[in-house]
Structure formats: structure tokens, C-alpha cells
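I'd like us to work through together how a protein chain folds, taking it slowly. We need material for that, and I hope you will provide a protein of your own picking. Go ahead whenever you are ready, and we will take it from there:
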Amino acid sequence: MDIYVVRPGDTVDSIAADTGADLETLLYVNQLEYPYRLAVGQALLLYPESGIGHAAHIEKGNARLPVISAGYAYPYISEWVLEETLPYLTELNLFSYGFTMDGDLIPPPQDDTWIVRAAAGRGVKPVLTLTPLGTDGHFNNHLVSALVNDRVVQLKLLRSLVGVLAEKGYAGVNIDFEYVMAQDRDAFTAFVARAAELLNLFEYEVSVALVPKTSDSQPGLLYEGMDYAGLGAAADRVLLMTYEWGFKYGPNMAVAPIDQVRRVVEYALSRIPAEKILLGVPNYGYDWPLPFVSGITEAETIGNVQAVQRAVQFGTEIHYDETGQSPYFHYWQYGVRHEVWFEDVRSYDAKFRLVEEFGLRGIFLWQLMRLFRGGLELFRGYFR
């Protein structure tokens, strides 16, 4: 699976001629648009159809388990982006359903019926994502407490879930609870186990999203309520949220530096079987105005293709951080220096190699609202 890094003087025609790559495929896979301007340091996927030849299954004892490629999407995703993305997926996580303090299930603001049908029509399993999002759009740990500490509320919610899953045609539930308070840790684990026990009776799978921990005793509100071992045992699968080291309100840095991602994976494997673990891969980047000032600076969220287009627009070179295995660049606009970190096929390659190295079950993308065809083609080349 050849990856080519653009050098000074390169054009799409010269790259195709020098490498033997098909020009139309080069343009299509890398989402290059006329007049096909390139940025020095830009990474291009050359031969997506050749593949690396890795198996589309992992071996577990006498069983062969299919490699999973999943991703999150909101119901308002572009129909075109969804149609372009579904052929690469085995599962689609719809974000998200919520619930009240009394256990009433809250559907997403936009109708989800069409996206469930579109996924199922392509042979992709639609998965309902359950979150404790409050009316302000933030995770509400008081909602979590109300649910996990009251069996009556839990039963009411789970019954509603079974009904919606059957009515809409969902194949399972993903439980994405963040900022679980330390005192609710065991109760949260017990709720996930109870949900899996009940929903498995109806042949629905239950997965749980895990914040990126590196030790049992890691301090902080984001981490203390997450019991990796307990949740790994309770759920059918876990989704490691291995991203957001660089984030919207944080300092300028790689979103998912591979050295940090590896630390999380190694810890997770000490608590959870590899065949249950999906690695989270970000499908976006951030553009920070500099200098960064904590509490004031806010980065702009941008897509991976958009990031490259921005580098082309400002005539700047894309660099690659070898430690974090992530691309970045700088540019000036209106007297302000910007720093952009994003993902490309090189950084995706580094993450997919972790999946192969540790025998993980697969990957999931947060999120699918912007198309990054090169990354999707790369994954299919790895596991097909």
C-alpha cells in the first residue's frame, strides 16, 4: 500500500507518471479537485486496490471473528457522505439517544429512520448510541447517577430501548457515558452488565465507549468512574476513545499522537481481551490561532481534506511529527500565526498497524460527517 509524500515541483501528472499510479484513481481516492494543486509534504495514497493482504478476520481459539470497521454519525449527515462511506463499514453508530432522570428515552432531534434503513440496505449494522447528554449539549453526570443507582429507572429505560431497537431495526446499543463520577463507578459497571444481559436475550449486542486511560488509578473526573476490567467483562465490545489529546479548548498538539494511543492500548490489553477492543480513530483536525492562551483560545474543527486544502491555499509546507506520527503545518492570516494538526494516510497507517500488531477487533471513526476517502481506502486495504 504505497503512500507518496509530495515534493517541490511535483504535479499529479508527474506523480502518476513516476509511480505508475492511475491518474483518475489518484485524484478520486485523495479527493483532489481541479486545478489539482498540491502542498509540499502532502501524503497521497497511490494504489488502494492493491491492498496489504491482511486477513479480514482475527483468530480466537477455533473461532474466526470478523474485523469491524465502525463509525459515528449524526442523523443530519449528508446523504452523499453517507453513501460514499457505507461501503467501507460493518457498523454505523447513530449519535445519539438520551434519557431523562425518570428513565424516559429521548430520541435525537432529527429523524433517524432514514439513516437506519440506509445502513441496513448496505448490509451495515445500525447501532443506537445512548448518551447522558443534558439540554445544554454536555454530558451530565447527575443523569448518570440517577440511572445507575435506581433499578426501577434502569428497567424503564431498558424496556424502552428494546422497543425502539425492534421498531427501528437497530442491531445493538453503544453506551457512551462520560464524566462518570468516582462514586458511581461500580454502579455504572453493573448497569452495563445488566443492559448486556437483557439485550443479549433479544440478540442485540452492547458496546461501551471508554475514555483513554493508562492506569487503574488515573486521577480526574473523566477517568475515575471508568473500570476498564469491569466494563470489558460486562460489554460485548469496548470502544477506546483514543483521541482529543489536542482538543478545541486545549493547547495546540496532535489530536491522536501514536505514542499516547499506544499507552492506552497497552493498558487496555492488560484488562480486556484484544478481540473485544475497537481502536478509536479521529476523522478531523484542529486549527489553532497562536499564541495559545488557556481559557481564551478556541481551535476551529476542520476535516482532514479541508486541512490539506488550507495548506495549499496559504502555500505552506506540511510537516510530519515522527513521535506522534501526525501531520501539521503553520500559516499566517491577518497577522495571526496558525497551527494545524490533522490526520492523513500516514497517521492512519500508524494506527492501523497498532490494530494489526495487537490483534484488536477493529476500528471506529469519530466521526463520519466529513468524508476522508483515503483513510477509508487504506483501512480496506489492510483488512479485506
About this structure: Residues 44 and 88 are 19 Å apart (CA to CA). The chain has a mean pLDDT of 95. The first strand starts at residue 3 and ends at 5.
